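User: Okay, second chain of the day. Same drill as before: sequence in, structure tokens out.
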Amino acid sequence: MKFSLALIAAFAFAAHATSTFDSNSFDREYYEVKFVDWMLKHDVTLSGTEFVERLKIFADAEDHITAHNTAGHSWTLAHNQFSHLTKDEFRKAAGLGVNVPKHVESRTGMNPFHTPKGLRGSKTTTADSVDWVDKGSVTGVKDQGSCGSCWSFSTTGALEGAYYNKYGNLQSFSEQMLVDCDTYDSGCNGGLMDYAFQWIQENEGLCAEADYPYTSGGGTSGSCQSSCTPVEGSAPTKWTDVDQSDASMMEALNVGPVSIAIEADETNFQYYSSGVLTASCGTNLDHGVLAVGYGTMDGTDYYRVKNSWGETWGADGYIYLERNSAQTGGQCGMLMAASYPSL
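Assistant: Same drill. Structure tokens below.
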């Protein structure tokens, strides 16, 4: 299989290599070999003109990754499932879709169970480091596919942590139920974690993932199903918006995992592989993820963040973002719209 696909790819390249790929023959062979290996790894089949067009995108990514990794940064980049996509295609394939109001303070309006400013001036003890993955309150990395449902994965992640910390049982909750049924959010067209917490409360809980599995990876929301029963004790009694400071975020993370929104469309985020990301990465919030802890790595303070792009992306599905960043709103804007539920 590997040999035949390589021959097909090589033939496609030889037949269609034109000035659209601006390299000498030695460079073309170098990039082609790497690209064919990438195609095999990710089960991608291309031919003809499309092969050449995608090879050029891949080659640009290869150049960026190589230049970065040889420059001595605190984080590394690597190819992943998005290496053949343009930036616009990446945004669609990654399902970027968190909808944060222009004025973040208006996230939940006058809901009486919403705490607008959490932990400011509280007496919560903060440890030197926290990792809720190690504590057992975080489910495995999931994959949202091309559906803009990141907000639902961030929501279930925070709910799973709160549920485990109260009941001692790690329960995987249904993102699909939120995508299909949550009338405060917009399914594959985006949403916000606070709104989802409110919907779960009013629905008197959320079903287990096993009873309402995820089916929207292709980018389409489904019809709301009423055949499952919400997990007992899964309805939030309240949810708290974390004040926009590292001190407040650390206090919140001593309570449990925290839903956060970030900007995730920058190249350094797209190809992130390991280490602590310290580069400026924007604050135009477009992606919901889950903060699961904090600590220090090789002298750099970090937050550990769980993504929903599968285990092949990043550090086994996670990214380490700089803590105490000089960037307003936190690294990638992660302090700007953080919240967590209480059960």
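DSSP finds ten helices and ten strands in the chain.

User: Thanks, on to the next one.
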